[in-house]
User: Fold this.
Amino acid sequence: MLVKDYMTRHPIMISPETPATEAQRIMTENDVRHLPVVGDGKQILGLVSRNRLRVPPTDLGSLNVWEISRILSDLRVKDVMVNKKELITIDPDKTLEEAAQLLIKNKIGSLPVLEDNIVVGIISELDLLAELSTLLGGNVPGIRVTIRVPDKVGEYAKITSVIANNGWGIQTSGGVPSPKRAGFWDVVIKVRCESKEKLQSVLETIEGQEIIDVREVP
Assistant:
């Protein structure tokens, strides 16, 4: 799963000379939260977000409505954007995991995707959440099970074997180190079978594993 396959291609881009009020309008009308700021040939210059366009109330407290209007109308994107030197970007051939790590580490909401300093896309935290939902089968019906398994070779094979032996299929699966028990993983699978009771009774026969949750997902 690579950034280039899940990024938004050809994102809306703006000039650093664009009025801040115009950038706000573009974001609102297109329901986006980040706009790459570019120069000639789509060369990256910065990034502007909805948060960057907010004027702190402390800066406006002593001003009247006419002065506030003048300040806002005079602001340009270049005055509020994250400039190129501070901007965190990513290559289209990087993995989604690397993109997620950059977002988390830097506490930011999006990454412009660049090739030779040219904007070819943008990927956001919402894009990654959407793919996480897809990865865990959020868009397909089935029976979702969370199983806590020892961190040992062969434990996942036990699950797939009993499911295959019953003629069922795994639609999606994933796993993370258990937040509740060291030395174990919490594995999530979604299975297509006749009932959650039947699936649970079969999985309960696997020695050393614990079923944490079973539910039907419409």
